[in-house]
Amino acid sequence: MEVKHGVDIDASPDTVFDIVSDLKGFGRWVDTLEAVEVLSGQAPEVGTRFTQVFREDDKKKSVDGEVLESTRPQRFRIRISGAGMVADVDYQLQPREGNGTRLEQVSSVELQGWTAKLLKGVIRKKSYQQVQRFHDNLKRLAEQTSREAT
After folding, report:
1. Structural domains in the chain (count)
2. For residue range 45-102, what is the model confidence (pLDDT) as tens digits?
3. How far is C-alpha 70 from the geometric centre of its chain's CA atoms?
């Protein structure tokens, strides 16, 4: 299953990259994230390993992750696994006219377990809605950060 979503942000690619590649700061824009622990390495370095704890529908879900690619300020890619899925999450950043950024997120998700596979359509819709909300949060954060820096 693939979930794609993009957003235009009035902030430089460097500013947006700094936010999406800050594993410990993910909770500032991913509102279901409760905790992050970096287990080895230092983000945004490739090979950095981490654990994230999410709360969804009053349930905590833990996933393990690794930074797969980090090319500042164009791309940041991670893989997370746990909670019945494996996901490759790819953040691609392109400069826009002026000082803006187009962020495209492509999440390739492999659902595990027969229940998840049966509910694939529902999960895809919910995932898209979550990503859209996260991007709204990211846009606000990056634009505020950009304004404060000037």
Report:
1. 1
2. 999 999 999 987 788 999 999 999 999 999 999 999 997 889 999 999 999 988 899 9
3. 13
CA distance 60 to 6: 27
Tell me: the pLDDT tens digits for 18-53? 999 999 999 999 999 999 999 999 888 999 999 999
First to last CA, the chain: 41
CATH of the domain at 141: 3.30.530.20
Which token pair is 79?
């893989």
Residue 93's domain spans which residues?
2-149
Q: Which neighbouring-strand residues pair with 107?
A: 3, 89
Which residue, 19, 22, 51, 20, is CA-closest to 35?
A: 51
